[in-house]
Design brief:
This protein is α+β, with helices and mostly antiparallel strands. The chain contains 19 helices and 32 strands. The chain has two domains: 447 residues, Alkaline Phosphatase, subunit A (3-Layer(aba) Sandwich); 91 residues, Macroglobulin (MG2) domain (Immunoglobulin-like, Sandwich). The chain is globular and about 95 Å long.
């Protein structure tokens, strides 16, 4: 009955938006939502400028290279807010849950697809899609159990309970969920209903076809005596991959306190194929992953997958985000049986660079201990400049030629190449079907900013060797220095070339990544608005100084974030629906995706999120406003003569759900009664007003 009500309300909603109905789409519809965790506008700007934006051939919209990122080529753009239910600044859990669940996903920080008041699990669009026959998958450079991917396929009150999130991923029945915990070799860790809860109802019957990312520690045992047989990283032939830094086999390490080997359970009990290296992933036998065949589990790091910069210099056996995305698409296509798929792809490590203030803050020795200083234009800490920030001290060594901006630019480029994999589907509707792409973020992080370019000449003569724009125009003839006539002009800093970043392309595994042309070239310099010098993070109140870089995480910010969208249907109710609406809330994307997949339980037109008043009845002036409504609406009416009025609310089946006013006397003229609908479920309702024996009714919709 609930589905029927929502379908009917959806058709009414569509009628309210220019009379266009939400028609079922042809088979083979694909939705990919890309989420750059912590991804504001500045990182995209940095990457685009490093790729040459503004230089010859990339200067004007008419230039073929003007848009150099796949992100920039997405046809429709909007801006959305990110606040959570209980905080002006969100964390990733509710920040992603709104994309997974729509308006019900607007919830408290740290909570994943769960109503914090009632404790009830909220169905996600991934779960709804799977129940309608779509193939579904999750890809991330973070731990696959981290908040953003978890929001689409798990339900839990605290995001850090990642051992439970992984168990929810692999289980699709309560029996399977219990079996996971009961496989623990330690009796006290075996399933206990009070402690381990139950498999949330929305996840029952939902199998994840693809899981690719980091986070092996939440799938493998902690105790070495119970070590998983799947720890050693192997290639397509099962041969161990040697880490050149150690000369020994590269391995993954588990950290499950219950010593459950969830990888073994997934492979042997749940029909998952398992890979843990780039070579094995890129060479899987797709014929094994068709309808009724294997599902795919790929875990490539114990924790998060390496930053792209560090992957290129020290962990080349890990796949890129683009490679994970490509194979996820191929497997989902194979498993979808022509229905289509839903895929979430997260660039999770953009956020981590910003949390760590990578390259923006240094730890130096002070009179009372270690303290912080701005570090805008020095090489990053070594080894692994992204992670090294967390343990750096004044004596920590630095790289010789890798800078903070190099980390961010490569991370954005890796994300962009993943977006290219999705955009490739747009060009082949005849073979791959209808495709809708969203690219967005859960929030901005760190106040990441592009502050200027390195200037070896120190033109500002202030020792920073950083400046923002080119030098002034001068005259080559000294005698004309004060002349107003435009002769003998010399344009500053490179003539027609101007003052732009100086980068060259470095090809790694078939993809181009920009890197500074030289140690003294014009490289991009970045900084962080949210750092220990401005917000006090990591400092001790007693001394006013910090201890080490690890105590100085950058903070999330409340900045609005960018959304890009595109599809190959040319339907104004799909990707184009995000434009022309002004500022959107982050809950506005899910209805578009749900409509594209024809998921009736999620179907809510984005154009109706801004409620419009209904037309008044011509005889009684009956009017409901707003229509649709969120939590309450007004019933306005006019009495030609004084008399008794009853206002009641009925559901679509004709059952009275609320008596608002009963035989209350009103005087002649116009009146309005407020209806509290906050406790009502989403759906279609009829407001019936009895005035001196005459019954007049109008329909409304609860979003």
């Amino acid at each position: 009955m609930k589905a029927k009500i929502l379908l009917s309300s959806g058709l009414v909603l569509a009628a309210l938006t220019g009379g266009q109905e939400a028609r079922a789409q042809a088979a083979n519809n694909n939705v990919i939502i890309y989420i750059g965790d912590g991804f504001g506008l500045a990182p995209k700007t940095a990457a685009r400028m490093a790729m040459g934006q503004g230089t010859t051939g990339k200067r004007f919209p008419s230039d073929a290279g003007f848009q150099v990122l796949n992100l920039d080529k997405l046809k429709y753009n909007a801006t959305v807010t990110t606040h959570s239910l209980n905080s002006w600044i969100t964390d990733s859990a509710p920040g992603a849950s709104v994309y997974a669940c729509g308006k019900p996903g607007k919830q408290d920080n740290e909570v994943i697809a769960l109503n914090p008041g009632s404790g009830a699990a909220i169905e996600t669009i991934l779960e709804a899609a799977k129940k309608q026959g779509y193939a579904v998958g999750l890809v991330s450079t973070a731990r696959i159990t981290h908040a953003t991917p978890a929001a689409f396929a798990s339900h839990i009150w605290f995001r850090d309970l990642e051992d439970y999130i992984s168990a929810q991923y692999i289980a699709s029945t309560q029996a399977q969920y219990e079996a996971i915990f009961n496989s623990s070799p330690t009796t006290s860790y075996r399933y206990t209903a009070a402690r381990d809860w139950v498999l949330p109802t929305p996840k029952v019957g939902v199998e994840l076809d693809v899981l690719l990312g980091g986070g092996a520690r939440h799938f493998m045992p902690r105790t070495r005596t119970a070590a998983s047989a799947y720890e050693t990283i192997v290639d397509r032939n099962g041969t161990a991959i040697i880490d050149p830094a150690t000369g020994t086999a590269a391995t993954l390490r588990g950290n499950r306190a219950d010593d459950v080997d969830l990888v073994s359970y997934a492979v042997n009990q749940r029909n998952y194929g398992y890979v843990n290296s780039r070579d094995a992933l890129n060479n899987i036998n797709l014929s094994q992953y068709g309808v009724g065949g294997k599902k795919l589990l790929g875990l490539f790091n114990s924790s998060h997958v390496n930053y792209e910069q560090d992957r290129q210099t020290g962990a080349a056996w890990e796949p890129s985000l683009a490679e994970m995305t490509h194979m996820a698409i191929e497997v989902l296509k194979a498993k979808s049986n022509g229905k289509g798929f839903f895929l979430m792809v997260e660039a999770g490590r953009i956020d981590h660079l910003e949390h760590a203030n990578t390259g923006g803050i240094s730890v130096v020795a002070g009179a009372n201990g270690n303290q912080y200083t701005v570090d805008a234009d020095r090489p990053t800490y070594a080894p692994g400049g992204g992670e090294a920030n967390y343990t750096a001290t004044p004596t920590t060594v630095r790289t010789t030629n890798v800078y903070a901006s190099d980390y961010m630019i490569k991370e954005v480029m890796a994300f962009d190449y993943a977006v290219a994999e999705g955009r490739a589907l747009l060009a082949t509707p005849a073979t791959t079907g209808n495709t809708l792409i969203f690219s967005t973020s859960d929030h901005e992080c760190g106040g990441f900013a592009v502050t200027g370019l390195h200037d070896e000449a120190d033109a500002q003569a202030n020792g920073t060797k950083i400046r923002t724009y080119s030098g002034q125009i001068t005259k080559s003839v000294a005698a004309e220095a004060g002349y107003a006539t435009p002769t003998n002009l010399v344009r500053g800093d490179g003539g027609a070339g101007g003052w732009f970043p100086d980068y060259v392309m470095n090809t790694f595994q078939g993809k181009d990544y920009p890197q500074p042309a030289s140690a003294t070239g014009k490289r991009i310099v970045v900084a962080y608005g949210s750092n220990p010098l401005t917000n006090g993070n990591g400092t001790r109140a007693s001394t006013g100084v910090g201890t080490n870089q690890g105590a100085t995480p950058g903070n999330h910010t409340p900045q609005d974030i960018w959304v890009g969208a595109e599809d190959n249907t040319n339907n104004p109710l799909h990707a184009a629906a995000i434009v022309g609406q002004g500022l959107l809330d982050n809950t506005s994307l899910t209805p578009v995706m749900a409509r594209f997949l024809n998921l009736t339980t999620f179907f809510t037109a984005i154009t109706t999120l801004r409620a419009t008043p209904s037309q008044p009845d011509q005889t009684t002036g009956l009017q409901l406003s707003p229509v649709p409504f969120l939590n309450q609406f007004d019933v306005a009416f006019t009495l030609p003569t004084a008399g008794a009025v009853t206002v009641e609310l009925f559901d679509e089946m004709g059952r009275r759900v609320q008596s608002v006013v009963t035989n209350q006397n009103f005087g002649t003229g116009a009146h309005a009664v407020t209806v509290d609908g906050s406790r009502l479920n989403s759906g279609l309702y009829i407001a019936a007003v009895t005035m001196n024996g005459q019954v007049v009714s109008k329909r409304t919709i609860k979003l």
